[in-house]
TrEMBL record:
It comes from the Bacteria. InterPro entries: DUF3267 (IPR021683). It comes from Candidatus Fimimonas merdipullorum. This is DUF3267 domain-containing protein. Keywords: Membrane, Transmembrane, Transmembrane helix. The keyword Membrane applies. The keyword Membrane applies. The chain crosses the membrane at residues 27-50, 62-80, 100-118, 125-148, 154-176. Pfam families: DUF3267.
């Protein structure tokens, strides 16, 4: 099975572009990420029967509060790096090509700009961090019983879900709107989708 093309094949035309560096797109994606993070946080908070009163009482233990806050501050950028590396691992598996990583005002990114990736490879690469880290990050939420530490774990999980909003959008597009044979050029913050032109 072929996972990418060196050049855009004849008969393909640009069908859609998602550019996170575009001001309007960046604002929409970040507002969607904020809403998704908030919804996830409150769903987990109330779903696990967490109590603001218990959290407030435990917050009086300054040492535990500082430790949890420090852990959260360290884990957040570490997660961001790992998220992009997982994209990179999957792109590398499918293409063996040079990757590009970066950070803009609106997003962190990993891309494989020198090739056009087929739909199967693109689907795998865009959803991989969401699938992997949803499993890994829900474990502390389930296993930790301290209100402070669980609150930190819930917050990190919520940021993870919100931070995947661009990936989830691309996954949805590729899965439901674009059929087999679609090619994607992923430069990092910008994904361009190409389809065969109807004759």
């Amino acid at each position: 099975m072929k996972f990418y093309e060196e050049n855009l094949p004849q008969g393909y035309v640009e069908a859609k572009t998602v550019d996170a560096t575009n001001k309007r797109t960046g604002i929409i994606l970040n507002l969607a990420a904020l809403a998704l993070s908030a919804a996830t946080f409150f769903a987990l908070w109330y779903g696990f029967g967490m109590s603001w009163q218990t959290l407030t009482q435990q917050a009086k233990d300054v040492a535990v509060m500082l430790a949890a806050a420090l852990c959260f501050v360290v884990c957040t950028p570490a997660y961001l790096v790992c998220h992009e590396l997982v994209h990179g691992v999957f792109y590398k598996l499918f293409t063996k090509r040079k990757l590009t990583f970066g950070l803009t005002l609106t997003c962190a990114y990993c891309g494989v700009p020198d090739v056009f990736v087929y739909r199967t490879a693109a689907l795998s690469a865009v959803i991989a961090p969401f699938a992997l880290f949803s499993v890994l990050l829900i474990l502390p939420v389930i296993l930790v019983h301290s209100a402070i530490w669980r609150a930190a774990a819930v917050l990190l999980f919520a940021l993870h879900v919100g931070g995947c909003v661009g990936d989830l959008y691309m996954f949805g597009l590729l899965l439901f709107r674009f059929k087999k044979g679609t090619l994607v050029r992923d430069t990092g913050p910008k994904q361009t989708l190409y389809v065969r032109q109807e004759v």
